[in-house]
Amino acid sequence: FQYLKRFDQGCNLDRFCYEALSVEGSPAECLQLFLLHCGVVDPSWAELRNFTWFLNVQLRDCEASVFCNPDFVGDTLNGF
Fold first, then answer.
1. Domain enclosing residue 48, as ranges
2. Its Gene Ontology molecular function terms (predicted)?
């Protein structure tokens, strides 16, 4: 949710990292963003769960990868 919220606001996500146990927004806002970005017109709860699980895994791996660290790669992958 934190990534999607900042993405919709046009923020630069290159240096953003998820803050564990931090709470932002309301449950309704979170659900609205998931519905907006999941890519399915009328998703089931299972489809929303799969979307959020997949997104979470990808973002966690991205944060852990040295190749996605802006301090390591500099501006060679700007906006990637």
1. 43-73
2. ATP hydrolysis activity; ligase activity; ubiquitin-protein transferase activity
Mean pLDDT within 61-78: 73
| 37 dihedral zone (left: phi>0; alpha: psi -120 to 50; beta) | alpha
How far apart are the C-alpha atoms of 4 and 55, rounded to whole Å? 10
Residue written as token pair 């966690």 = 60
Count how many domains the chain has.
Answer: 1
Task: Give the pair of three-digit tokens for residue 28.
Answer: 């309704």
Residue 53 within a domain: yes
Q: Per-residue pLDDT tens for 7-60?
A: 999 998 887 888 888 889 999 999 999 999 999 999 999 999 999 999 999 988
Tell me whether residue 68 is in a domain.
Answer: yes
Q: What is the spatial distance between Cα 12 and Cα 15, in angstroms, rounded to a whole number?
A: 7
